[in-house]
Amino acid sequence: MLALKLGMSIGGSNRPMGGWTPDSEGTNLVAWYKNKEGITLNGSDVSAWADSSSNSFDMVQATASKQPAYNSGDIEFVAADTQNLQSASDITLSGAFSIGIKLEPDALNLAVIGSNNQPTEFLKIMTSEALRVSTDGSLVDLSLDEGTFIADINLVLTRNASNLITLYINGVAQADTETLAGTADINAIGVRNVNNNPYDGTISEIQIYNSTSAALTANINTYLSTL
Predict the structure, then answer these.
(1) What is the pLDDT of residues 28-40, one digit of tens each?
(2) Which among 63, 75, 136, 137 has most CB atoms closer than 10 A?
(3) Residue 137 is part of a domain; what is its CATH number?
(4) pLDDT category, 10, cuts 50, 70, 90?
(5) Owning domain of residue 129
């Protein structure tokens, strides 16, 4: 049994044999918070989720009360405790990007990822049917075709060279697309500046790329569906 505050690292047990992985994208892979890997435990809570890319945007939390729990690959955030993980340096996405997340929110008006030191930089579930994306003070809302965000979902968000934002839910492109320019800054999982809209629910994987293509989107969707 692990004693409270005893650090333990989880890793090396979830690498698929053959086929595409985020590593296949080379330098286009900006950050990868991999399911069941790179996780450091403080008792049963997560004090760090290491970046499995080569860029070392590790997400950490030194304050025990703000550390989310770990449960068989799911990282469980409690909004009432403002639980979150943060990187010492910012991920900046000034052009095209792709973001893939496996998550199960339990509430609304909550930040999934964003910046906790830059204003108005976030990806936030606004309502049961709307996702808000904000960069450089501008924002767009993307609506679901059907269903709700309060579910176990695979979410992929892409922006192309023309700044067109497209949302995919469980591999299906949603009809509502929006245009949003600006630099997306990310240094936090579970909050936005300053410790606002804390996330409630689980997050199991996050992939971030500085590119987008039909092939990449298909690969991310397929990969997330296997977790």
Answers:
(1) 999 999 999 999 9
(2) 75
(3) 2.60.120.200
(4) low
(5) 28-35+90-225
